[in-house]
Design goal:
The protein has ten helices and eight strands. It is of the alpha/beta class. Strands 1-2-3-4-5-6-7-8 form an eight-stranded parallel beta barrel, surrounded by seven helices. Helix 1 runs parallel beside helix 2 and helix 5 runs parallel beside helix 7. It is globular and about 50 Å long. Belongs to the glycosyl hydrolase 17 family.
């Protein structure tokens, strides 16, 4: 990062066509990590894995927390895909989170220089957290507001969620988002078996987004294969295998399709590994609960 905050975003971000292959990690913030801890882990993402971005997952409702995210990201030299978390309670706490996030985006001079995009929810359509027509309206209003500081807006969700509600408002959501943030989780398919055999499932969802998004840039904002199952991670196929080898094989599969992702219409596809550590979410971390790497991980960021 420069020694002082620039005056303009002109020329600041890379062209989206260069944002393909491995981008970084999903980063769970429910633990409300300190600024120091986030700085250290964001640096690890940047320096050890060459990650360019951190995709926020979950929510910390400590006032000013996103200021800490911004400062940690600035110090570490990474961008942030920020998130308005809806949660699973069916309440309106997301409105308070939106207001808090927007307040920081407009008041912290560094915020727009690390915030690549605001995600309006993580699977809000799948969870029925908000009416799809209302979500489309919220995205539209957010785009109008954040256009002042050059921050785009999206919704992070599954192809299935859009397909299920395509004629009930989901089409309007897809039309409103600036970029497509797709959840690609083939482990949960009813046709899942092993990670090595999951490419047809990945392409099926990707092709749906390509066909229906009007040529928009696609990111795999949440993508991975669990190394173990838990109460919140259960397969829908009796043949789906969850272990460390399959988690490794899934990322090897994505990494091996670098040239394919580079040439996807709309500017290529960039993907996030979900998630940084099993201390955040059991089964999906690159690091295990003891802080050790589960397997060697050095995916390509270009090809």
């Amino acid at each position: 990062m420069p020694g002082s905050v620039p005056n303009s975003l002109n020329g600041w971000w890379c062209n989206q066509r260069d944002e393909y292959a491995f981008l970084g990690f999903g980063y769970e913030v429910t633990a409300c990590q300190s600024r120091a801890k986030m700085t250290a882990e964001f640096r690890d993402i940047r320096q050890r894995f060459r990650g360019r971005y951190v995709r926020i997952y979950g929510a910390c409702d400590r006032r000013g927390f996103y200021n800490d995210v911004v400062e940690a990201a600035w110090t570490a030299g990474v961008g942030v895909h920020s998130l308005i978390w809806f949660g699973f309670q069916g309440d309106n706490s997301w409105r308070r989170r939106k207001d808090e996030l927007f307040s920081v985006l407009f008041s912290n001079p560094k915020a727009k220089f690390v915030t690549r995009v605001v995600q309006f929810g993580s699977e809000p359509l799948f969870d029925n957290a908000i009416n799809a027509f209302e979500l489309a309206s919220e995205v539209r209003r957010a785009k109008k507001s954040l256009k002042q500081i050059g921050v785009p807006v999206t919704v992070s969700d599954l192809a299935y969620s859009y397909q299920r509600g395509y004629n009930s408002g989901a089409r309007e959501v897809l039309a409103e988002v600036d970029t497509v943030h797709a959840h690609i989780l083939p482990f949960f398919s009813a046709r899942a078996s092993t990670a090595r055999n999951s490419w047809p499932l990945v392409v099926e969802d990707l092709n749906w987004f390509i066909k229906n998004s009007g040529g928009k840039k696609v990111y795999f904002s949440q993508s991975g294969w669990p190394s173990e199952t838990s109460s919140g991670v259960r397969a829908n196929s009796p043949r789906a295998v969850a272990n460390v080898q399959n988690e490794k094989d899934y990322y090897t599969l994505l990494d091996g399709r670098c040239s394919y992702f580079k040439n996807v219409p709309g500017g290529g596809v960039g993907w996030f590994a979900h998630i940084y550590s099993d201390q955040h979410e059991v089964g999906y971390g690159i690091y295990n609960r003891r802080g050790g790497l589960k397997f060697p991980f050095s995916p390509r960021t270009s090809c």
